Amino acid sequence: MAEKLKILVTDDSKLLRKKLRGELEELGCEVIEAENGKEAIMQDLKEQPDGVILDIVMPEVGGIEALQVIKEVSPELPIIMLSSAGTTQKLKQTLELGALDFIQKPYGSEQIKQAVERIRRKVEENDK
C-alpha cells in the first residue's frame, strides 16, 4: 500500500481546491489539482492518483462525464463525488457509474477524513 495517498482534487473553484488541499495534506495525502473534468481526465492518465475527489458541475467537461471516462480507463480507481447540486437523481447516477461516495457541499472536515479512509481501504483492497 502507498504510505502517502495521492489524491486528485477537481473543482472549478480555486478557493475550494485550496481548502481541500489543506485538509488532505493535514491527513497526510499528496494532492494534485484540476479545475475541470477535461483536466481531471488528463491528470488521471498522467499522474495515476490513488483516488479522486470530483465536483459534478464544472465548465468544459462536467464531473459526470469525467467520472465515466476515468472509470473506463481506471475501473478500480476510487472516486468521491462532491457537489452543491446534489439531487437524488445525480447521486444515484454517479453511484451507478461507479463513484465510491457522494459528499454534499458545504461539507465538514470529518466527511473528508471519512472519504480519505474509504479511498485508503479501496486502495488496500485493490492491492491484494
Tell me about this structure.
With 128 residues, the chain is an alpha/beta fold. Helices cover 49% and strands 19% of the residues. The protein has one domain: 3-Layer(aba) Sandwich (Rossmann fold), CATH 3.40.50. It has a five-stranded parallel beta sheet, with helices on both faces. Helix 3 links the parallel strand 3 (51-55) and strand 4 (79-83). Helix 2 runs parallel beside helix 3 (63-73). The chain is globular and about 35 Å long.
Task: Explain briefly what this protein structure is.
The chain is of the alpha/beta class. Helices cover 49% and strands 19% of the residues.
Give the secondary structure arrangement, pairings included:
Elements: E1 6-10, H1 14-26, E2 30-34, H2 37-47, E3 51-55, H3 63-73, E4 79-83, H4 88-96, E5 101-104, H5 109-127
Parallel strand pairs: 1-2, 1-3, 3-4, 4-5
Helix pairs in contact: 2-3
Number of domains: 1
CATH class: Alpha Beta
Q: In percent, how much strand structure appears in the residues?
A: 15-25%
What's the rounded overall pLDDT mean? 93
CATH architecture term: 3-Layer(aba) Sandwich
User: What is the count of helical runs?
Assistant: 5
Helical content stands at: 40-55%
Q: What is the CATH homologous superfamily assignment?
A: Response regulator
By DSSP, the count of extended strands is 5
